[in-house]
Amino acid sequence: MASFKYYIDKGINADYMSILGGIIFISNVIGLFIITIVVSKASKKFLSPLKSMTDTVREISINALDKRLNVKGSKNELKDLAKTFNEMLDRIESSVEQQNQFVSDASHELRTPISVIQGYANLLYRWGKDDREVLEESINAIKSESENMKELVEKLLFLARGDKNAQKVQKEDFILSELIDELIRETKLVHKDHHIESDYNEKFSVYADRKLIKEALRIFMDNSIKYTKKGGTVKLDSHLIQHTNTAVITVADTGIGISKEHIPHIFERFYRADKSRTKSSGGTGLGLSIAKWILDMHQGTIDVWSELDIGTVIKISFPVK
Question: Which terminal CB of the chain, N or C, has fewer other CB atoms within 10 Å?
């Protein structure tokens, strides 16, 4: 009797365990299904910004650099990644725009001397062979324009090398006052119709590229002379600020001055505050850009003060060591 009851209980327990196992299995299946749905929705929500980023990136090309990743809906690392990517695109777009502008301006500047040379060449071909006056005029014009074009190309190459960090900067110790005296003597020989002066030229040594510093100062001097009437004064001075170990050079003139709105732009490439005046004097609009690049390579700064019909003062500062 006890044995029979044992088998009955055992059967009941087996059925119970079977039912329990079925319930657990079904619960697991339902739970797994629910988890799958939840995870799927969560992953879609999480990956949605990534898909949007991917689609946007595919649309970006050299002709469509204005596209930006949408940071809305992104969180934490993805948002930071999107912001960093957008900042990178901003820099790339700005660089491409500058490059396109540079090429456009360079092409425009080269077009003028080429057109002049071509025009005089045609004039020579038609009448210059037999007309001595036309021949001399054409030769002088072609010679002048070819020299202007050579100067422009050299400046363009200088800036291009600078942009690629291929322009050599060879620093050495030298006496700055000696360089300034040298530049003043040379300028006086060329520009005898201006007063080239120096009120103070302190003697001290600097560690810099002598050739490039002289080039930058020559650009500032030539620019001052260009916009100063005959009989006007251009001064080139220097002194040392000892407590900061800083060399200070000033170029001051009594020229026509620069309007306030133009001062922030004078170091931009091809910028011309007065196009007609600059054009007539043979300027390319690149000299001040080159001078600024040179001073940048020496960790220098340039401050400009100017008043119309009074004059301009350029203050150049750079560390001695």
Answer: N
Cβ pair 177, 201 in contact under 8 A: yes
* C-alpha–C-alpha distance, residues 205 and 173, integer Å: 6
Instruction: Verify that 211 and 289 share a domain, yes or no.
Output: yes
Could you read off the pLDDT of 225-250 as tens digits, one per residue?
A: 999 999 999 999 999 998 899 999 99
The pairing of strands 233-241 and 301-307 is unpaired
Q: Please provide the DSSP assignment of 57-126 as one string.
A: HHH-BTTBTT-----TT--HHHHHHHHHHHHHHHHHHHHHHHHHHHHHHHHHHHHHHHHHHHHHHHHIII
Using 70 as the pLDDT threshold, list the residues of the chain that sit under it. 1-17, 20-22, 25, 38-53, 55-78, 128-129, 272-284
Q: Please indicate, yes or no, if residue 68 is contained in any of the structural domains.
A: no
What's the CATH number where 241 sits?
3.30.565.10
